[in-house]
Design brief:
Strand order of the largest sheet: 1-2-3-4-5-7-6
Strand content: 25-35%
Oligomer: single chain
CATH class: Alpha Beta
Bound molecules: coenzyme A
CATH architecture: 3-Layer(aba) Sandwich
CATH topology: Aminopeptidase
Shape: globular
Radius of gyration: 15 Å
Largest sheet: 7 strands, mixed
């Protein structure tokens, strides 16, 4: 398995993975738009087949933000998510930021456990964050310059 930069010809496959992973999709145009804006966009590839992706950026100039991460259902628990998130964190840490934030659906226990493994902490709960009125847990990974 390798982690590499997203390429436009990965778009269809990334969208397929997103669709099987979330009830509410960002939509293919949103992915295209984020890529064109220069957002951090990595994919995990297994024998030439894209099995997962992560999208991330810097918000408010000082805050890393994980926009979306997902792994194909048939390839979960094989550490593709770990490899993707580790690389995204590594890239973000090269910038002058103090923390990395993300939102996770309050009912998404799998992802919550996954982020806890990375030492993400709970910041707050935002009720009715998602379209279907489910709440979000905002989590953050603090770090200091000495972590770099
Ligand atoms: C969350 C997600 C990206 C994890 O990807 P993954 O490649 O399966 O995760 P990894 O194999 O790297 O798991 C690393 C660790 O996270 C934890 N973890 C991952 N999936 C878990 C699950 N279903 N239940 C409990 N813990 C889990 C475990 O501690 C795991 O280590 P272990 O397998 O040695 O026990 C994947 O489940 C996914 O795509 N989910 C749907 C989309 C999603 O919810 N994205 C996050 C939105 S906020």
């Amino acid at each position: 398995m390798i982690i590499r930069e997203f390429r436009p010809d990965d778009l269809k496959r990334v969208f397929e993975i997103e669709n099987m992973s979330f009830d509410n999709s960002y939509g293919i145009e949103m992915f295209k738009g984020l890529y064109e804006m220069g957002t951090g966009f990595l994919v995990a590839e297994d024998n030439g087949y894209v099995i997962g992706y992560v999208l991330f950026w810097i918000k408010y100039e000082t805050q890393g933000h994980i926009i979306s991460i997902a792994v194909d259902k048939n390839y979960r628990r094989l550490k593709a998510g770990t490899r993707l998130l580790s690389k995204a964190i590594q890239v973000l840490m090269n910038f002058d930021i103090g923390s990395i934030y993300l939102e996770v659906n309050e009912n998404n226990k799998e992802a919550y456990e996954f982020y806890k493994e990375f030492n993400f902490k709970v910041d707050r709960i935002v009720p009715n964050y998602y379209e279907n009125n489910e709440g979000a847990i905002v989590m953050y990974l603090p770090f200091t310059r000495s972590d770099l």
